[in-house]
Each structure stands twice: as C-alpha cells, then as structure tokens.
Please model this.
Amino acid sequence: MMDALIRCIECNEIFNMTQGDTSPRYTWHEGEIKEEESDDRDAFLQKHKGHTIEKLTSLTPPISDKPYTEPVKTSFFEATNGTKRFLIKRWRDTIEQPFTYEIIDGRLDFNHGKIGVQTHAIRKQLRAEYDPSISEEQINYFINAIHKEAEKIDPATLMVSAEGETPLISYYHLGDATLERILIRCQDTFNHDELELLRNFMREHNEYDGVMTVLVHKEFAIKPVRESEFPQTSHLEQRISLHNR
Ligand SMILES: [Zn+2]
Model:
C-alpha cells in the first residue's frame, strides 16, 4: 500500500508514491471520452524541484477508530527517516481521490484498553451445544467465573488471536492457566462430566474470534512531543539515574 513515502525536508511536506499516481483519468468531454494524463507524482516533484527530499519508512500501520471497510476516513501512522520520527495524518474526502498526507506534531499514544468477555455469545453457544441438564444457574455461574478471571488479566500479557473490525479492536486467547482457574471456580457447581464438557467447550472456542476469546478495545490519543525526540525514554532515564543516586 505504501510504496514509497517521500518527504521534502525543506517544506516538511510528504507524498506517497503508489502505482496509481501516473495512471490516466477518463473524463466525458463534449460527447467523447478523453484520457487525461494525471500525474500527482510529477506535480509533487515539480513543486519541490531543487529541494532536498528523503524517503520515510512506516513504523506503524494506519490507525483509525473507523472500521477497516470504511474507505473515507482519517488515519494516523508513524514513520521515520532513520533518525527522526514523524506522525502522519492520512485522509481523503471521496473514495475516488488519492490519499492526502500531512506531517503533524505529536506522537501516537495507546492505552491497553479494557478486557471484554463475550457474555451473550458464550450463553448462546452453550445453549446451542448442550443438553438442558445444565441449568440456567450453572451457566450464570460459569459466565461469572469467566468474568472474575478475565478481570485479573493484564491485557498487555495476552496473545492476539484475531483482529476486530477496526485496528483498535483485537481478540485474544485466554491462557491455559486462566482456563484451569475458571474450572476450579466451577468445581462445586458442576459434576465431573459437566466439568469435562466445560473444559472442551472452552478449548474449542478459544481460537480466532471464538466465543471464549476476550475482546480488547484500545483507545489512542495524539500526545504532544516535548523538547526531546523520545521524551518517554529520556524521562525514564532521568528517573532511573535519580534512583541510583
Ligand atoms: Zn519542498
């Protein structure tokens, strides 16, 4: 997608060279289809003729809170020229237009988000798969046990199993230790055979975006960059050196 991201150092403007830049556009003109040479690449190079340009490498995928399937949206990503990091805003107004890119001040900042249990989906799947000998109270108890164990998990320790509908939503496997602790919580409420059913159910649906995987919805913000390029690192170093004294 990002074939070559070019930055004019003097103007701090960027352009993304893609294969589509030099392809002609067709217009209807006085009863005829006209082929127009449309060369956005030449326009950029013409504007910045004689200026020093450099190539940037993307460091992050384009981040947006809109679904992947939404074609007209604003995204943000970070790129580097090898020494400096840039935050880049990418957008377009209509689906026919190429993307516009602009360097903006700041850094992308993510929180780890909150873990969500797929309560309704688990209940529905359990009802679809199991005989009615497992009571509604037992199902509630099982779901409650999942919630209690999920609350204790640090989202940063989880393994992604599938991506959600936006770059900020992901599904995560529950670890084996968590599955075991859920079963231990259920020991007094389910008999041996029922516990085996639960064990198999959890294993079977703990893949991809299965009902036992948990959803994490992250949020992002654009944080200002202070005097240093990597303020977090330098602040951390300061803190460490103070502790050492
Ligand atoms: Zn320029």
The pocket of zinc ion is lined by residues 8, 10-11, 13, 48, 51 (CB under 6 Å).
